[in-house]
Design goal:
disordered N terminus; 296 residues; single chain; mainly alpha; 15 helices
């Protein structure tokens, strides 16, 4: 019975490589050519614009929490393998933050200047959390957030590939690039949390909090973007709800995968989507690979 409840913890794949890819995309040029770059649809376009705008400060929060827990741990509790994964995780997240900063700056250049205020609010929240919350609590939130983003990658591969297919370049390539690296490092902060003595109750509470917090912040940004375009009417509100919670809505389809996190024996490497993501989005990954080779 205990074995069924807690399960067997999955191990890191033997072929795992965390590759901090160096990419750079011109978001402003594409936005100027087509403001509604996702399926010519303002509601879905601004959902992605809103979601991605959370990433730069979110990823800085993730990097800080991982560093702070790592640096306060006894070295005999931190394997060399995990320490190296943390280093590469931080490099990957730093590049993600740079690219999503550029995406948000493109939105600001188009006239959505209120996005800067959202960023400032998130920066203040992050400063508050670093002063008031322990490193382990912040890491629990980070591990939960990493499961959320890895779940989105799972969604793109198996359930809603249209979410990527309907995006214009370079947003499509950015989504695939980010998804691949989220899959590569999806267990790093979870494993660090476990190694640091984090427990089930805290990680479960963090997952609940992170999900609600992300949805609220994303909604506020999407609402602002649509309001700026004069499109936040009843039809848009209905479409926005359906996009997340309708019959094939993003959150409705995503929820079963998110709920796996609440199983006591859960581990992120119970599934491995890397090969299927590259198979499904080979053209997009080839663009990313060429950029990486060029940068090298």
């Amino acid at each position: 019975m205990i074995g069924k409840l807690f399960g067997r913890r999955s191990k890191t794949p033997t072929d795992l490589t965390l590759l901090p890819r160096v990419v750079h995309f011109d978001y402003l040029k594409s936005m100027r050519a087509n403001r509604y770059w996702h399926d010519d649809n303002p509601v879905s376009t601004h959902l992605f614009n809103a979601l991605q705008a959370l990433f730069p400060e979110g990823e800085r929060f993730f990097m800080d929490s991982a560093r702070d827990v790592r640096d306060q741990m006894d070295k005999d509790k931190l394997s060399a393998e995990l320490e190296e994964q943390i280093r590469l995780f931080i490099r990957q997240e730093a590049m993600h933050g740079r690219e999503h900063d550029a995406w948000t700056e493109a939105l600001i250049a188009l006239g959505y200047v209120g996005m800067r205020g959202f960023d400032e609010k998130l920066k203040r929240d992050n400063r508050w959390s670093r002063k008031k919350l322990s490193p382990l609590v912040r890491l629990s939130m980070t591990a939960a957030s990493e499961h959320f983003t890895a779940s989105l990658a799972h969604l793109f591969v198996y359930k809603r590939p249209d979410l990527v297919d309907n995006a214009a370049s370079p947003f499509r390539e950015l989504l695939v690039y980010h998804a691949m690296e989220e899959l590569e490092h999806k267990a790093v902060c979870f494993d660090l949390y476990q190694a640091a003595g984090g427990g089930y109750a805290l990680r479960s509470a963090a997952m609940a909090f992170v999900t609600v917090d992300l949805l609220v912040r994303m909604h506020n940004r999407q609402k602002y973007l649509l309001e700026q375009d004069g499109l936040w009417d009843e039809d848009a509100r209905r479409e926005a709800r359906a996009l997340l919670w309708g019959k094939n809505g993003i959150m409705r389809v995503l929820m079963p995968y998110l709920l796996r996190y609440f199983r006591p024996g859960f581990h992120p490497w119970e599934t491995d989507e890397r090969r299927d993501l590259r198979s499904r989005y080979g053209r997009e990954m080839s663009v990313v690979d060429r950029q990486q080779l060029k940068a090298a």
